[in-house]
Design goal:
alpha+beta, two-stranded antiparallel ribbon, about 160 residues, globular, 10 strands
Length: about 160
């Protein structure tokens, strides 16, 4: 018997390798056709913001699609604390900023445009670079880093 009659045809997996890293793409249907969206630039821009304010923090994960930092443990009896992460997801790049979950007052004064990018209490989702919103997110991240307990290390 032929297996081709039993199983539906599958689309081939497209993997583009650039400089040793996977180039992340997702497809979205536009006018009946599939358009490819590249999130590498958005990930790079957002992780640059996070790296800028990571002084005194620990990098837990530094991969082409996942950048995760945490506040070091305050003592040998406590664990490191999640601070922020940038991750490429299927249809967007997420920017998680835990201090705004713990202290929503940090969000006071953010623009409606940035607030519309929020999903939940501490996550901002982007599909393209947005210079103005990224500048605002940079200021918010700086404010969050200043309030983080960094075991005596401050930005």
């Amino acid at each position: 018997t032929s297996h081709s009659n039993l199983y539906p045809a599958r689309q081939p997996l497209i993997l583009v390798v650039r400089c040793g890293y996977k180039q992340h793409r997702s497809s979205s249907k536009l006018n009946g056709n599939f358009a490819m969206t590249n999130f590498d630039s958005t990930f790079a821009s957002l992780s640059k913001i996070l790296r800028k304010h990571a002084t005194g923090m620990s990098i837990k994960t530094d991969e082409p699609s996942n950048f995760y930092i945490e506040v070091p443990a305050a003592s040998s009896k406590t664990k490191p604390k999640f601070f922020a992460a940038v991750q490429i997801k299927k249809s967007y790049v997420s920017y998680h900023l835990m201090p705004v979950y713990e202290d929503p007052a940090l969000l006071t004064g953010i623009s409606d445009a940035l607030r519309k990018k929020m999903q939940g209490k501490s996550c901002f989702n982007f599909t393209v670079d947005d210079t103005l919103l990224f500048k605002e997110l940079d200021v918010l991240t700086k404010r969050c880093a200043a309030t983080a307990e960094l075991s005596g290390v401050h930005n």
